[in-house]
Every structure is written in C-alpha cells, then in structure tokens.
Design a protein that fits this description.
This protein has 113 residues and is an alpha+beta fold. The chain contains 1 helix and 7 strands. It has a 4-stranded antiparallel β-sheet, with no helix packed on it. The longest helix is centred in the N-terminal third of the chain and has 31 residues.
Length: 113
C-alpha cells in the first residue's frame, strides 16, 4: 500500500514542522523574557540657559509626569504632554553639576552642559 506510506510521511513532516514551530516560539519567549517594554520619555538636552537658569528639552511619547531634582534645590513636578517640550528652571545662586529626572517608570541623570 503505497498510499499509506505517503500519508505517514506527510503526517511525520507536519508533526516535525509543528514541533520546530513550538521550539522556535519557546526560544523567542526565552530570549525576550525580562526585556523592557513600554514607552519611555527622553531627555533630549539639559543645559544652562543663563547663569541661574537651566533649560531642559524632554521628548515624551505619551502624557505623564516627571519629578526633577538637583542639589540645593526643591524637587519640581512637571506635567508632560505628548511631543517635545522645553522647560526652564531657576537654579538659584549655585548651579548643580547634574539633574535627576524621575518619570515613574525610569530615572535619568543628566550633566548640565
């Protein structure tokens, strides 16, 4: 019966294809496990605008909030809109070396240029 032999070969190839597909999916799941996913804001620039003011550009893909901290200053909370925004901060008499941005799901530290 050559038809039975052909049918068993087709079933075997189909079974092996499903097995390889399952292994491939498990391999992808293992490789992507623990990866960061989601949308994150980006601090584009952080520089001194004048002697006592800092200018910060933040690009945010979604609406959100951010807490900005620096040495010698009180924390400020910003409300972010979608897109790129420019913010200015009065730093006082002493300019800090760096600023810390807390977006809730990430923390970014930038040096003042």
């Amino acid at each position: 019966m050559p038809n039975l032999d052909l049918l068993s070969q087709v079933l075997f190839v189909a079974l092996m294809a499903m097995f390889i597909f399952v292994l491939y999916r498990r391999f992808l799941a293992m490789m992507t496990k623990g990866r960061i996913s989601g949308s994150y804001a980006r601090v584009v620039s952080c520089k001194m605008a004048t002697e006592d003011k800092a200018e910060v550009r933040i690009d945010s893909p979604t609406k959100g909030h951010c807490v900005v901290r620096w040495e010698g200053g009180d924390p400020m909370e910003l409300t972010l809109a979608e897109g790129e925004q420019i913010y200015e901060f009065n730093l006082g008499s002493t300019a800090p070396d760096r600023m810390q941005f807390d977006f809730g799901n990430q923390q970014v530290v930038r040096l003042l240029e």
